[in-house]
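User: My instructor asked us to take a sequence, write out its structure as tokens, and then describe one feature of it. I'm not sure where to start. Here is the sequence I was given:
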Amino acid sequence: MGIRYVIAGESQCDLFAETCLVADYLAQKLPSFCYDRIEKPVTEWMPWLQKINQKNKWHHTRSPIVWKELLMAGSKPFYIGSASEFLEYCYSYYKFDVYFSPLRFEHLTDNFLQFQKKIKQETIALDRLDNTILVENSTENKVTICISGAGNPLALFIISGLLDVKQNIYKIYIYDEECSQTSMEFIEHECNYVGTEYLGKLVKYVDKIGVALTSSDLLIILDYVPFQSTYSIGQWLYKNKKLMENIAIKINATATPKLYVVLPNLGPACYNATIIANLVTKINKNNVVVVTSDIGLEMAPVAAEIAEVPLRNMFCPPVWGFVGINHLADIRTTIHRYDAFHPYERYVKVKNSSLCIGYLTPEMRTMEYLMFFDETLWKKVGDRKRKDTERRLNFHKAVALLNLVRIWLFDPNPNYIVSLGIQCNGSFGLTFSGVFSQPACLLNGEWRPASHYMMPRDPQVKISYLQEIAKIVMTLKKTDLQQVVAYTPCTLECCDAAVGHVGCAMDRRGSGTARGGGGDTIGSRASDFAR
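Assistant: Let's start with the prediction itself. The structure tokens for your sequence are:
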């Protein structure tokens, strides 16, 4: 069992400094020698010494005091004495003999204090160096995220969700070419106010996206051109194409080769992602994905209500298609967890038994048998989407994007299946050379089609049709599919009212020029028009 020596004394005591010097020398020469040093200010020394005397029933009166104890918690201290007793103890136990000259050690106290101060400074410097190394190592394990189009209201909810996993995030850069600097600085201030417990600015506004892309691991693109009634389909796609080409140029110029690019379901999302994937040369085009599971999240509560299935036991419906142009959310291949009951034989034979009557086995089933005869799903989903449109914001898009970021960057698991717009590789019979929404899984850091998943079973929409539409859309020109002019068909009541107004007007004209016969002729023409 090891022994530890404890040396306590006043900070201005020469004998205390001499005793510590001897103990330090012995600790350097003898590997088994261990000591602790307790230094008390002059004003605190006597009260502290009185407490030690009362606790251990000692009668020590001056500085320093030395005792020994075993190297274990709660061990009993054994009194040695003052400096002279400690030196005698060292001589008898370690055969250590030393002579202290008064002149030589006249300023030992000051020197010893300076020595201890220097040791403390060196310890602080080493701690700072260790902390710097730890910060650098922790920074290497953290990710940097850049959000383009941060003026979109959806960006605030995305940033708020990212701050929940701030221990894994080094920096969030926000950028928007269309918004003013004042607006972006306001967003920066508000977001940093949420995370006030962190040192430095976690969210930072940049006026040039190239500065952020040089160190970013993930780029979230919220830029898109919304459709307007004055646009033709070709013109709308053309404007989005030009916007994506500009972003692709910036990616090729400044981004790192390992950059991930994510687009939420805004505008012609799969079309925009296809444009970027075809133009980028510096990054892997398989790292350009579109979050499409928000479409399934929209309909999941309605489907759970109709099928009377707890929403917590239901998985997100798979989403197929060229999202932003067309899509299919297949409720029939949606999986839910079902607890199947298997009764024992005595359940049938014995009535009112107090014993266990059976057991439950969890199973994974599709919802096809629950939704086969229902025709109200899409009407209810449409009504809910109409209400969401009135609220102007769709939180499903932010939730779906944050789930993807968590799975992709922070909690990768190849068993997860997520609906994503990704590059087709022939799985599910999809040969489209672009981004197409389908069930996907994460393999070696890249999203690939989950080829083992079921094909859609919707009786009305086939994915081959969705694929053909995607191919056609990619070939559209600016002047194709001209503006759709709203047309309201005329009803019979409208025709009768219009004929009445025309007849009255013509009668008035006839009465002013030729009465009698002229009026009859006009009236007959009005009747002919009515017929």
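For the description part of your assignment, you could build on this observation: The two ends are 119 Å apart (CA to CA). Try explaining in your own words what that tells you about the chain.
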